[in-house]
Every structure is written in structure tokens, then in C-alpha cells.
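Please describe what follows:
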Amino acid sequence: MKNKLVAILFLLVAVVNFGYAQEHTSSSVIKLEQTPGKFTVQSLTLEAGTYQFEIANKGINHEVGFVIAPKGKPEQKYHIKEGYVQKTIKAGETSLTKQVSLEKGEYIYFCPLNPTPHYTLIVQ
């Protein structure tokens, strides 16, 4: 009887911890590459939710970054700060953003250091 009680308690703790981990690590990682003057993925359509963006510097001989902003508002005051990479990215390296919660709407993404066009990010 005691062994069954211990097993049930263990199972309950495991289920609660699993649920907590799922809730706090539920962002998807979107991988993007920058090459000289452009991103290789030039538009994105995502569901509303929480994401991290992993940006790779492929062949650019200086550091690059990443910006997400509402469509038509590329100015720094409108940037989604969680969408900045955690460090500028040297050639051959990658960096992640923090978790970014995106609601339905239209956004843009671009690099302010490797002048790229403003690419479309649609959140449904």
C-alpha cells in the first residue's frame, strides 16, 4: 500500500512539473539566415503565439542584427524589443531573440546593420 501511495505521489509531481515546463517553454523557434543584403526567407506567415527567432550570419563580413516592428512603423520607437537578438551576430554565428508574443496583424522584419529590405511578417 505504501509503495502504491509513493508511486501515485511521484506520478502527480511528474505531471504537474511536465505541465509547468510545457507552459513556460512553449515558444517555437523560427530560423532565418542573413546573406549580403538580404534574408533568405523574404516573407513569413505565422499563427498568433509566442516565438523565438534564431538569426544566422551567412557570409556577411560584419555583425548583423534583427528587428521586428508593426507594418509601416520601422522607426526604433516602434521596435518590438523582445525581437532583438541577444547579441550582434558575427560571420558564421547565430543568435536568438527573447520570446516574442505576436498578436494577429502585419509586421515587418529587417536588419538595421546589414541594410536589408523590410520583409513581411503576417500573423493570423
Observations:
- Strands lie at 28-35, 38-39, 43-46, 49-57, 67-70, 94-96, 100-102, 105-110, 119-123.
- The first strand starts at residue 28 and ends at 35.
- The radius of gyration is 19 Å.
- Residues 18 and 89 are 33 Å apart (CA to CA).
